Amino acid sequence: MKVNKILVSQPRPATEKSPYFDIAAKHGVQIDFRSFIKVESVTSKEFRQQKVSIPGHTAIVFLSRHAIDHFFTLCKELRVTIPDDMKYFCLSETISLYIQKYVQYRKRKVFFGNGHISDLEPLFVKHKGERYFTPMSNISNDEICAMFDKYGIAHSEAEMYRTVSNDFEPEFIEPYDMLVFFSPHGIASLKKNVPNFVQGDKLFACFGNTTANTIREEGFRLDLEAPTATAPSMPAALDEFLTRINK
């Protein structure tokens, strides 16, 4: 099957320097962008009702850039000062670098994996004495909580943002040969907007093992999963895939 049209379920990149545009030109394909979800912050009142004290922790776990944005925004609203010696554990290097938007990166202790939650396990074990806090969305991540419990590591979670579906017509996705997902919320949005969706020959690609697991659990076929050893990003994985399938 030749891939001609790809829908990336994220907002269009802010500049034309995105690698997605290079891939489109290189392979002669059309890549469009449409966010399947939108993210809303919880209010200060809603966060306080969860009775979690951020200063009572020594390490923060960030699983997405949304988590970083809403964590620091809420801390500012709540007038919570983050200690300079706070440690940060991130799902990937890309997420870790995003912290620079809020703090001086070179002065912080930052650790990161390669996009899979399992990558963080040896880091958590090595730093077992920390008290971890994970900013969550309205859909909690049982995998990371189970990992902490497995080793008896002190941890807390709290909802700091919520993800809701963006509406679109079922006919909107029909022309695309491939859909690219980045979170389980994107899959939920697809099911909400296209309740009778049948995958057929339509290819599914995703970034991250949590999203991959969700796709399989929902009974869909996953054709491309990133990151890989040779493709640390979604654009790199797409480039490899298109090189192979569009020969």
Mean pLDDT metric: 93
State the helix count. Answer: 9
- The rough form would be described as globular
**Sheet of most strands:** 5 strands, parallel
SS elements, strand count: 12
Strand order of the largest sheet: 2-1-10-11-12
Molecular structure report:
It contains 9 helices and 12 strands. It has 247 residues and is an alpha/beta fold. Among the domains are: 35 residues, no CATH class; 123 residues, Rossmann fold, CATH 3.40.50. The strands form 3 sheets. A 5-stranded parallel sheet has the order 2-1-10-11-12, sandwiched between helices. β4, α3 and β5 form a beta-alpha-beta unit. α1 packs parallel to α9. The radius of gyration is 19 Å and the shape is globular.
Quick description:
With 247 residues, this protein is α/β, with parallel strands linked by helices. It contains 9 helices and 12 strands.
